[in-house]
Amino acid sequence: MKVDRDHSTMFRRFRWIQPLVLTLLAGSTELNAFQVETNFPGASIQVFGIDAKRQALTFSPTQHPGKGWACWWHFRLTGIQTNRPIALTLIRTSAFGRPTRAMFSHDGVNWHHTEPGVRIGANQIYRHQPTHDTIHFAWGPPFQLQQARALVQRVLDRDPSARASELCRSREGRPVPALRWEPANPAAAPRRGLWVEARQHAWESGSSWVCQGFLEWLISDAPEARKLKQHTRIVVVPIMDVDNVERGAGGKDQLPHDHNRDWSDRPHWPEVTAAQRGILEMSQAGEFDLFLDLHNPGPGDKTPFFYGSPETHLPPIRKAHQKRFHETTMKHLGAEPLGLSPIIRVSGPGYHPLWRHISKNWVAENTAERVVALTLETSWNTSNSTRQGYVSYGHALGRAVAEYLDHP
User: What is the span of the domain harbouring residue 238?
Assistant: First the structure.
């Protein structure tokens, strides 16, 4: 009897192993059962329930304490049976992590929208009819450090005037890739200056795709692109918060504050310190004209828009240049399917306690009065908010920037 009790106790203690034993006994076909994989950079999912028979998953983004909003999610499903639909139920996240449509990919490269999900209270249910046994699902089209490096290499392969640069090393030791153009400086034609950066908030992956589109246009055969590079010092940073992008964290409102609240006299983040140093060098040389910080906005913002600085930061010359730049972008970005708002919103004292430490406001305070500094918020929760839509928007942004800088 003692032996029986001991065996019974041991069986209860290790009851978690029963499903594994049953799977092994069932044969090799069950080893490929419906399951979630997260063994790649940027993966983020907390599983609350999984039903292999129904191909149903209940999940939320991973919570990363101190690393910002839990709104980014990305995972891979394997062992999918293509003769039945998949049901994904997203729970326990804010509206920022709850897109109307999820993104899916069969190869982790090409991304497409699912059909619109069904909203039930604070939850969102996405249903998808699979055609492959392995599928990635994500909040939006991912853009990781690996893609930033590959983008840099494509630019270098296409454009001998481009120079790869490492903006800095992150706090966790990762390289922050950047690209530079430093044309000759004839005395009769002073150089212009342009700084473009994306992803100060890690979850806003669409901003990196807009940045890629801008770079693709910049190395194209367009005469305007060639002319811009001949007369303009250009710095482009596709990902600022590389650590949270790789971790799969949101980054927004991380501790002690996020990258776009860090533009002070003593920044916490190495990426901000390096960006400030580069911008000040260009400005002090009299070769800085335009700063663009690329973001994605709230879920209800269906039309892209710019954030500008308050009136206190808009001397007459900057105000006039900002108006001309906005009119130019309306012509180019406004013609895109995503469109562009005719109104520039303001992030000043009533926007956030650290409003002076927002990047564009810091640039406005610390560079010449002619410099235009804006945040571009490209909508992510629309049917046009796809990899292709973002890249096309970046092309249009390039055309607008070239036209603006061609007229001092």
Answer: 145-405
